[in-house]
Every structure is written in structure tokens, then in C-alpha cells.
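Subject: for your reference before the review

Hello V.,

The reviewers asked for a structural picture of the protein, and I figured it would be easier to keep everything in one thread rather than splitting it across files. Below is the amino acid sequence we used in the manuscript, unchanged from the supplementary table.
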Amino acid sequence: MMLAAGETPVYLGPIVALLVAAGLIGALFVRLRVVPIVGFLLAGVLIGPHQLGVVADETQVEAAADIGVMLLLFTIGVEFSIERLARIKRFVLGGGTLQVVLTTAVVTGLCVLFGVDWRIGVFTGFLVALSSTAIVLKVIAAKGATQRPVGQASVGTLILQDLAIVVMVMLIPILGGEAEGAWGIVQALGTAALVLTAVIVVARKVMPPLLERIARLCSPEIFLLSVVAIALGVAYLTSLAGVSDALGAFLAGMVLSESRHSAHALSEIMPLQMVFSAVFFVSIGMLLDVSVLAELWWMVLLAAVAVVVVKVATAFAAVSALRVGARTAVASAFLLAQIGEFSFVLQQSGAEYGLTPVGMGAEGGQLLVAVTVVLMTATPALGALGELIARRLPEGAAAPTAAAAVEADDTRDRVLMAGWGPVSRNLGHYLSVNGVPSTVTTLSPDLAADAENLGHTVVRGEATKASVLHEVGMDRVKLIVIAENESEEATHIAHVLNGLAPGVPIVVRPTDTTDVVGLYDASVDRIVDTHRAVTEPLGGTVLDLLGIDHTHRGHPDPTVVTRFVADPDTSCAHMEELPPVLPKSPGCTECLRKGQRDWVHLRICAQCGFVGCCDDSPGRHASGHADRFGHPVLFSAEPGDDWAWCVLDEQLVQSAETPAGAS
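And here is what came back from the structure prediction:
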């Protein structure tokens, strides 16, 4: 009935406007090589109810924004595994704790100095102490600094900040005057400790076997639904326990991070997270009233400068205490100099108890939004400024990092096998015998276990997902092998991998009839035809036993797709749109069947890849094939030749790649 009446849901227009604005402005910022989240924020400012009014009612996108922040923080939690936390615990427990304590103390002291109640001061200190995990991680990843000291110091501090939000939320009722003093603090800290303990227990004992059972179904759809259900379900349960639902989603991510399927989970949910995080950051931008910003610009500017100064100073002091050197401390401090997305979660919790930033009420909320948007937008520039200052400082002692042990070995020496099966298993054994390290990606828990038992590194998930390739470590991969998929699937995987890992050679062995054209378009470097891969070794074995020499002469290579593109000035009608072909054999196909190698020159059929000997050879198989099958165009397989011959027109045609003036 709604469709017949032509009614449009009231929420559809604002959501469409929100996504279109986010997409267009986000794309613009990507072209400008700026983190797209900054574009999302500015898109929200532009279309919000206080500016153009394209989205006039903020409540129409609140539900999407709530889900957005939950999924955003869930994916952040997945990336912050307990194992990763343990690797950089020095940065987390030392630098992170000190940064949060120092920032809160300094902001509280400044607030009290200006006559603000100490409880409000502590609450404001909590808001300022938190940095934007989403933006900083994007900036660090874009710079390739995740494993460098500056990246580890920043990530360690961010992890502690995100964990500290558990304690901060528990302390909100005390700061709001609705809990007993010392006993209330003890209760809050005890509750926080119980929540974190429950997270660790569930992460280690419950989640791995549960996800293992789900993964055994080998259904990406069911796995994705299960992951979303876990994220939102834990968020709901924690909200019932009095903890923020967004915080619950973050803890759910940390629970999931301990499973061997965390990379798979992250790859499946990442597309959804991208959409909802865009909605979240756009909705944050929509909260900003530019007229208030224009009216109180001096206060916003002063507050932004104060936040940067305080956070740079406290973060520098915290990281410096770890003795990592002034350069690392400065670069990390400037990266952490903004206010983060968790601050809005904390602000909402505080509002329920009458707590507002600096005790300024609604005006304080607008001030927080304005300063946050400004500093989030300025984060890439602040990071660049920190690097510039750091480079001008003298060299200091470098901190030991998790990557230090493999630094000297950080070269492209690894083979990535996309998929696991009989062929990959045999190839893996061959690589192991020859000392070549390999990594396997697969969705099947049983196949993953088999590969692990044979000593291969395994990443659970699809090789077409960026987060899975990040887990693989594509900077170490020298070659990609796709050996367990049908031709159509292999073509799709090759297309995606060429986009996500450009420059890495790809070898494909399809399990069915080879789609030469599709794989050629996917820029595959080598194709191992399934039937030839079986027949040729068998034929070689037979010829060995017969004592017949069958040494490969070097051309043509039956794994390399080739294509003749005619020079239009010398072309004939039969040369139009010749397909790419895979040479059928490393010599004249007919001669090899007879065990003969007395050909003079070789020609390749431009229509099907048949390899035949020339008319000067005893067999003249190239011309014979052309007459028999009606494939008139033959091109030379000899090294250095760049011409073709049309049998019907008796015409010599030069290649379009022939240098000008060549004969």
C-alpha cells in the first residue's frame, strides 16, 4: 500500500543526503590525500540543521549514528587484541597511564584555577585526555609507521585511553554527586575491574570455540551476521549493566580479537563499519553550529590552542618517561593532540548526571563539538608538524620495538597462497623443502588447521579483503599463488589483489577450464593450465623412462599469456580484435607428441594458442593448423620477432609495439 501510494519514508531523504555528502566530500579529501574522516566531519557541518539544513532534524540520523559509533569502536577493539597489548605493554601501562593521569590533572588544575568545581574539572579532564583512535590509526597507517617507535608509542597510549574509559564511565555518578565518596570510588574501580576481567575470560575461553563452530560452516553471510550479533549483543548487555553501549561494543571487539578468526571478522565487518563510521562522523559534524563558532570564535580558538598545548606537553612527558628519545616523544605527542570520539560517549554519560564541559551547560557542549571538529580536522597537519619538529631534534636512543627482531629480515621473501587444497598442500611442501616461507589464507577452520600443522603461517579470511592482507603483511610477500579456485573466482581474486597489492606477481592455476582472456585482463603473470599441469609432468616421466630427450628449450613459455596487437598501417581484416592466448606447449605441439624436435622456427596461433613449426620445418604444422581450423593468423614465437603472418591474405603484419623505423 505504501508503494502504491508513492509515500517516501521521512528518514530516507536525510540518510541519502548524509551518505551522498559524505561520499562526495570524502572522495575530495582522498584526492587531496587527507584522511577521509575529516571530510565526513565537514560534510556534517555543511548539511546539518544549523547550516544548509539539508538534514533538519538531528534525531533522524541518531539511530544510525549510534550504530555507527558502536561498529566503529567494535572494529577498533578487534584491532587492539590482548596479545597486541602484551607486546607493547611498556607503552600501554607506562606511557598511556601517565598521559591520562597527567592530562586529567592539568585540566582539573586549570579549571579549579578559574573557579570551576573540581568535579567538573575532573570530568572536563576526562574529555580532554582522550584522543581519536580512529583518526590517529588512519594517519599512522597512511605513513606506514605502525611498527615504528612513534607508531607503537601512539598506539599504546590510545589503547590505555580506550581502556580508561571503563573507569571514567564508572566514576561519572560520583562526579555527578549521586554516589558516596570514597566507597563510591572503590565500587566504581571494582566494577571496572570485574568488567575487564569478564572480557579477558570470555575472550580466552568462550569466543574462540564459538567462532570456530561458526567458521566451519564456511558461509561468509552467516559469519558476518554472527559477528554483528556479537558486537551489538555485547553492547546491549553492557548497557543493561550500566556501561555505555558504545563501550560495550569496544569490549566486544577486544573479546573477538583473541580468536584466530579476528582478521576474518574484521574483513567481513569492515565495509559495514565504513558506512556507519561515516554516518557517525557526519552526525558529529552536524552538531556544530557555525553561528556559535563565529560568535565564540575566540573562545574556540583559545580552547583549541589550550588543548593542543596541554596534550602535547603531557603526552611528551609521558612518552619521554619511557626513554624512547625526544624525536619519538615529540612526534607521538602531536599525533595525540586532538579530542576523540569516546569523548562524545563520555559527554552523553555525564549529561545524565548534570555534568557539562567546563560547567558551561549547552554552550559548553557546543564548545566541545567545535574544538573536537577543529582538532580532528587538523590532526594530519599536527602529525606533519610533529614530524618536522622531530627531524630537527638530535638523535636519541631508540626504543626496542616488536619489529626490531625482524628488521634485518624485513624483505620480500614470502609466498602467499590464496586458498588451501591438494595443490597448495603439495606446493607448500615444495616451498618448505626449499626454505621458502609461505602464508596461507583460507576460510575453512579444518584446512587452516591442516596448513598450520604443516608449519605454514595461516591467516583466516578471504585474500580479497584489505584487513586480511594487512594481517598477512604484504610488504613481505614476493609472490601470490591462486591454485584452488575455479577460473571465474580466480579472475576475481586476481583483480582484487592487483588493486590491493600492486606490483606483486600472481600465478594462477584454475581448477576448471582456463579463462585466458579474463586472467589476462586481471594482469596475471603466469597461468598454469590444469590439464597441462598434469599431462606434461606425466609425459615427461614417460619420455624419461623411454630415454627420449625432452629438455625445455626456453620458448614459448606455456604459462605466460601473450597477445599480438597489429600495427594498423600494415594490418589486414583478420587481425582485428585478436584475443590473448596461452601457448599450448613449449615447442611445436604436434612434433612434441611424436617425440621430435627437428623444427626450424615456431609460430603461435593468434586465435587459440596452438604452437606449430614453420614452413621451413619438416612438419609445417603451423600452416596445417591454420588450414584445418580456419585460424589464419600466426605470429612468431622466436625471441626478438614482432610480426605475424596472415595465411589467407599472405600478408606480413608488424606488431603495434614495433619501434618506429624498424623493418
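For the response letter, the relevant points are probably these. The longest strand covers residues 477-482. Residues 327 and 390 are 4 Å apart (CA to CA).

Happy to draft the paragraph if you're swamped.

O.
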